[in-house]
Every structure is written in C-alpha cells, then in structure tokens.
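Researcher: We plan to redesign the surface later, but first we want a full-length starting point. Tokens attached.
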C-alpha cells in the first residue's frame, strides 16, 4: 500500500488542522477524525440537516492535502454509477477490430481487462495512487442492497469484479459516510464504522463559526443573532434553523446593513431561517413578540 503522507500524532493536531482548513470542530469531532485516520476506520456522521457533516469531509481533505472523492447517494443508485462500469463502446470496438482474426475466447480475455473498466467514485477512491478522502454523502437515501455492497469495501478495502476477480486497494482512503437519518441504517454497516453525532453547536461555537464565515458583520449583531437562533431552536419546529441558516442570515443582515436585530429587522428577514408556513407563524408569534 502507498504510504500515508500526513499522519497526525494527536487529537489536538487534528483539531488545529481542521481549524486551519476553516472548520471549527466540536468536542468529539477532532477525536473521531483522529481515530478514523489512525485506525483506518470509516466514520458514520449523523445529525440534522446543515450542521456541517459534508463540510467535515471537505475540511479533512484540505487539512490532509488529499483529493476529495465524493459519491452523492440517491434512491436507485447502483453499482454501475458507484463502483465501476464496463466501457461497452470500447469493448465493441475491440471486438470489431479483432473480428475474424481471433476466436471468441481470445477476444473475451481481451475485453474484460482493466483497460475496459470505467472507474466510478468507489473504485477510483481505492485505486488512487495517493490516499484520498472518500465522502459517501447521504447514504440513507440509498437502499439496503447498496449498503450490503458497500460492506466489502468498508471492511476489507477491496471489491470483487466477477470477470476480473478481486481488486485490492492500492491506497487506503479516509472514509466518511453521512446520513440525515431518513431511514435506520443496518447494524452490519454501523459495526464497521466509528460513529459521530453532529448536533447544533453550543452558542460559543456557533458564534465562532458565524464570525469565521461573516467576519464583516458587527459583533453585537452576530452575538444577538446566535442568541435569537438559540431561542428559535427551542421551539417545536418542523425544521429548526441550522448552522447553514445562521450563516445565511448573517450574510443577509450584513447586506441589508442591519445595525441591530430588533423586532422589525427580525420579522423582515425571518424567512432566511424558517422555511415552513406553520414554523413562520409560530416563530413570529413567540420570538417576534419577545423581541418587540
Ligand atoms: N464546524 C463548522 N465550522 C465551520 N463551518 C461550518 C461548521 N459546521 C457547519 N459549517 C458550515 O455550515 C454550512 C452547512 O454545512 P454542511 O453543508 O456540511 O451541512 P450538512 O450537515 O452536510 O447538511 P445536509 O444534511 O443538509 O447535507 C456550510 O456552509 C459549512 O461551511
Ligand atoms: Mg450534506
């Protein structure tokens, strides 16, 4: 296997590295990332929408200076899109070129070689010369058959292609799987992974994150924004605002030149953070009134 170029020697090193890459890790994030890199185990990252699951993989790739290979999952995703596909056109051309001269068995030997394989993200990730970061995003959107297919890859870092046999990894990727919990994942998959639950951050951490993304916003407004977001999350909403919404809101307030977050500004810009009609009513009533 190729040498892993950067191996952090402590949890603190990973935390500092992620920060350097523009990602502010919560309490267990750096620890789990450190273990994943050192133990070579995949991480299953779960949590509500917009709390930084996908961004963590991107930041790890930046920090470790590795290529990010991303597989976006969706319903009906199959091996041909995720793993590999035979390059039918090229195979056909070879068959035509060899027609007449060679018997079928010779042609068959020829057309099922690596030369005729189209590597999709999973195969590309384990056959890369330098180790990569592999992000399998929103794994809960696929079906259980797909999960079963992933198991061989995640536990042994190899895949089996019927016509070619076993292909072992030339380099071992750091693997992150993310899930929004839209369905329960299988125990078999979970057993092979480390687990990281990302939740809404503490007020201090969120303040830091918003400052990092929108440093130009007046600090009083940023503080107020984080406080109000916290109040909104306390309500029983269909979709509570995430970090992504906090950042969007900060950007909107900056653009509008808001100097304070009073009831008027709040009511005018609330649609940046709440996106269901019933939620809007509830938030306007509870938080809007509290601010007035
Ligand atoms: N700890 C963090 N440090 C810096 N930025 C963060 C952090 N967490 C989240 N963000 C920012 O919040 C936004 C949303 O993050 P991301 O897209 O990774 O969320 P997600 O959990 O993958 O959401 P979804 O489930 O909807 O895909 C991004 O712009 C990201 O940069
Ligand atoms: Mg995501």
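Model: Full-length starting sequence:
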């Amino acid at each position: 296997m190729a040498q892993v170029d950067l191996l952090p020697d402590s949890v603190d090193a990973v935390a500092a590295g992620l920060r350097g890459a523009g990602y502010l890790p919560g309490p267990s994030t750096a620890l789990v990332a450190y273990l994943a890199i050192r133990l070579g185990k995949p991480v299953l990252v779960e949590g509500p929408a917009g709390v930084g699951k996908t961004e963590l993989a991107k930041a790890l790739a930046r920090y470790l200076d590795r290529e990010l290979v991303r597989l976006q999952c969706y319903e009906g995703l199959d091996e041909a899109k995720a793993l590999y596909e035979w390059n039918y056109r090229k195979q056909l051309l070879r068959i035509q070129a060899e027609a007449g001269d060679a018997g079928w068995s010779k042609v068959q030997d020829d057309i099922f070689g690596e030369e005729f394989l189209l590597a999709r993200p999973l195969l590309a990730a384990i056959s890369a010369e330098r180790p990569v970061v592999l992000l399998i995003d929103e794994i809960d959107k696929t079906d259980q058959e797909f999960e079963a297919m992933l198991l061989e890859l995640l536990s042994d870092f190899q895949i089996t292609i019927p016509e070619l046999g076993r292909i072992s990894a030339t380099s071992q990727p750091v693997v992150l799987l993310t899930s929004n919990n839209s369905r329960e994942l299988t125990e078999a998959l979970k057993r092979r992974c480390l687990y990281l639950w990302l939740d809404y951050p503490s007020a201090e951490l969120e303040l830091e994150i918003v400052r990092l993304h929108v440093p130009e916003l007046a600090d009083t407004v940023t503080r107020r924004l984080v406080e109000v977001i916290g109040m909104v999350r306390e309500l029983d909403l269909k979709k509570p605002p995430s970090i992504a919404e906090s950042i969007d809101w900060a950007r909107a307030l900056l653009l509008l030149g808001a100097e304070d977050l009073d009831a008027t500004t709040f009511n005018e810009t609330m649609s940046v953070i709440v996106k269901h009609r019933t939620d809007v009513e509830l938030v306007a009533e509870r938080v809007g009134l509290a601010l007035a």
